[in-house]
């Protein structure tokens, strides 16, 4: 059973019962997952850019968009309009597939993994997670990687409540750290 089918048949009814929701459209659900990778100025080199975009596409399942600097920052050597990162917004089936791989394969592969911190909710029902090395994804060929890069993954939900969003992610399989451990991270 896919994660989307599990949500529709088991998780959604459980959330409706727990939070006493009568309208199916008001039940917490994931709307999208936004994946970002900061790349500094390496996107200027066409060969490196193509390799990085290929790796990112393998990780997310879709071609990324290059993000351009909005302002110039002399201290960082960044000029307005220069490419500074890659991003992809996942919805529907790709979103559920990515989330399932993230929870089942990627997070457990990280060193000293004891769960994700619970303090990463933004107060509006969205959860942001940082991954230090994109090489933990099994789709990335280690022989072709010049250096590991970090990823930022934001899970956007339709609820404005942190408690409801956390319960949704728990039921979907997100491995949250125990309360006393998440304060140490």
TrEMBL record:
Domain Large ribosomal subunit protein uL5 C-terminal residues, every copy: 83-176
Record's GO cellular component terms: ribonucleoprotein complex; ribosome
Cited Gene3D superfamilies: 3.30.1440.10
Listed InterPro entries: Ribosomal_uL5 (IPR002132), Ribosomal_uL5_bac-type (IPR020930), Ribosomal_uL5_C (IPR031309), Ribosomal_uL5_dom_sf (IPR022803), Ribosomal_uL5_N (IPR031310)
Pfam families cross-referenced by the UniProt entry: Ribosomal_L5, Ribosomal_L5_C
GO terms of biological process kind: translation
One annotated GO molecular function: tRNA binding
Record-annotated Large ribosomal subunit protein uL5 N-terminal domain positions: 23-79
SUPFAM superfamilies per record: RL5-like (SSF55282)
Keywords: Ribonucleoprotein, Ribosomal protein, RNA-binding, rRNA-binding, tRNA-binding
Role this protein plays: This is 1 of the proteins that bind and probably mediate the attachment of the 5S RNA into the large ribosomal subunit, where it forms part of the central protuberance. In the 70S ribosome it contacts protein S13 of the 30S subunit (bridge B1b), connecting the 2 subunits; this bridge is implicated in subunit movement. Contacts the P site tRNA; the 5S rRNA and some of its associated proteins might help stabilize positioning of ribosome-bound tRNAs.
Subunit structure: Part of the 50S ribosomal subunit; part of the 5S rRNA/L5/L18/L25 subcomplex. Contacts the 5S rRNA and the P site tRNA. Forms a bridge to the 30S subunit in the 70S ribosome.
Homology family: Belongs to the universal ribosomal protein uL5 family.
Identification of the protein by name: Large ribosomal subunit protein uL5
Annotated organism of origin: Candidatus Woesebacteria bacterium RIFCSPLOWO2_01_FULL_44_14
Gene that this polypeptide is encoded by: rplE
């Amino acid at each position: 059973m896919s994660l989307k089918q599990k949500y529709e048949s088991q998780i959604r009814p459980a959330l409706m019962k727990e939070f006493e929701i009568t309208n199916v459209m008001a039940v917490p659900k994931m709307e999208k997952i936004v994946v970002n990778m900061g790349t500094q100025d390496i996107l200027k080199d066409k060969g490196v850019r193509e390799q990085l975009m290929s790796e990112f596409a393998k990780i997310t399942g879709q071609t990324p968009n290059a993000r351009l600097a909005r302002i110039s920052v002399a201290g960082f050597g960044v000029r307005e309009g220069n490419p500074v990162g890659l991003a992809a917004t996942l919805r529907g089936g790709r979103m559920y597939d990515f989330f399932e791989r993230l929870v089942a394969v990627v997070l457990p592969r990280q060193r000293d993994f004891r769960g994700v911190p619970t303090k990463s909710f933004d107060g509006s029902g969205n959860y942001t997670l940082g991954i230090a090395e994109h090489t933990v994804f099994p789709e990335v060929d280690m022989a072709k990687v010049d250096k590991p890069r970090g990823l930022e993954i934001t899970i956007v939900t339709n609820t404005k409540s942190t408690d409801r969003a956390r319960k949704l992610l728990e039921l979907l399989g997100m491995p949250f750290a125990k309360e006393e451990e998440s304060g140490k991270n």
